[in-house]
Amino acid sequence: MLDVLVIGGGNAALCAALTAREAGASVLLLESAPRELRGGNSAHTRNLRCMHDAPQDVLVDAYPEEEYWQDLLKVTGGRTDEKLARLVIRASSTCRPWMVKHGVRFQPPLSGALHVARTNAFFMGGGKALVNAYYRSAEKLGVQVRYETPVDRIELRDGRFVAAIGRDGERFEARSCVVAAGGFESNRDWLREAWGRDERGEWPADNFLIRGTRFNQGVLLRQLIDAGADSIGDPSQSHCVAIDARAPLYDGGICTRIDCVSLGVVVNREARRFHDEGEDFWPKRYAIWGRLVARQPGQIAWSIIDAKAVGRFMPPVFPGTRADTLDDLARQLGLPVGPFVETLAAYNAACRVGRFDHTTLDDCHTDGIAPPKTHWALPIDTPPFYGYALRPGITFTYLGLRTDETAAVRFADQPSDNLFVAGEMMAGNVLGQGYTAGVGMSIGTAFGRIAGAGAAAASRLATARNHTAKEARHAFA
């Protein structure tokens, strides 16, 4: 019988498969996507947030455990399991040599991302290169890989994994299993259920775009919760980013993100500001803006900048709407001209310009308006002016399976002895809300390796029990 079955094809699943194989287990990995689309959301990633107490090749200065923890605590608002969060943080300090062994290469951050040079290690070639390196290593080590093999159901017996049932009815038995099949961000019906209707009776989720794979439908997550697995997290919470409204429905990835929010103002379709654009550094706060836009009428907003901001942020893939006057920009964007000009005039008048420095929490702020802009507040008064339409872009959802430091799936608060979980399917244990750049890959890498090691150990134990049982039967035959 197969030792370890891994369900999923992204970073967490691959880390689990590689770790289990290194431990001597026979491993089969089932990826629902075709080979050319393998890797799930991991293919769209760029970096890994890493704890380090001293400079390490591509990582400058130091990023100690307590600072990492405080950054995570701040963005989650305390909605995190400290024990598991610190496990992830500490694991992030030791995982890179293992990743390099399996073919992953790192590089210094490119211009436009230098502000995370201290906290994040960037993958050479991005997430697609990481995924490809892991698949190459898995194949060399003898991990079996099946593409276009979605799994619809896990067969359980008293909280133990028995078999996985594929969509076509094929049955996959194994001594242990790791589920790392992603969240439900691509399941529009489930997003509707999670977000409900707004005050106009409309479904906000109908206006959401999906930054990553179309294959994360949450089928196994739903089935396991229905089968009694303990869950954690708010289904409406997710890694939700404000992205270009012209982005495709699926797989737009990193290039659709609009990174100029902190350099200007953001208005809704009534041409009103609704949140502090400069409350903190962009890597710590960028993932709140998708949810903020989702709460606006029609789930749309516009990021407005002037010529002073150009060159200070990672340029998006689509050019912004350009105008030489604010009146003309409002007309081109389809916004009410009077309120738009009024909003910008009030903002400009409220700016208290000190020493502008976008690499620090500077002293440029507003005074006397709500919402305030806490940092980087410069008047928008230098043509040409630019506007970027924003929509909520869902990366991954936070509703998941409750687990512990062993990565075991829990039933009635009891850990399964042969079913483990990693990646998006359990990220809600660490991320109750909010996000900070690179932490998703930290969670997937840490728990993927823990789950893989646990599954291999469970398989060895099952094999030993079977041998003991056979010896007992022979003794009394």
UniProtKB/TrEMBL annotation:
GO molecular function: oxidoreductase activity
Residue ranges of every copy of the FAD-dependent oxidoreductase 2 FAD-binding domain listed in the record: 3-431
Matches recorded under InterPro entries: CobZ, FAD-dep_OxRdtase_2_FAD-bd, FAD-oxidoreductase_2, FAD/NAD-bd_sf, Succ_DH/fumarate_Rdtase_cat_sf
Cross-referenced Pfam families: FAD_binding_2
Domain of life where this protein originates: Bacteria
Gene3D superfamilies, per database record: FAD/NAD(P)-binding domain, Succinate dehydrogenase/fumarate reductase flavoprotein, catalytic domain
Required co-factors: FAD
UniProt KW keywords: FAD, Flavoprotein, Oxidoreductase
Record protein name field: FAD-dependent tricarballylate dehydrogenase TcuA
Organism listed in the record: Derxia gummosa DSM 723
Lineage: Bacteria, Pseudomonadati, Pseudomonadota, Betaproteobacteria, Burkholderiales
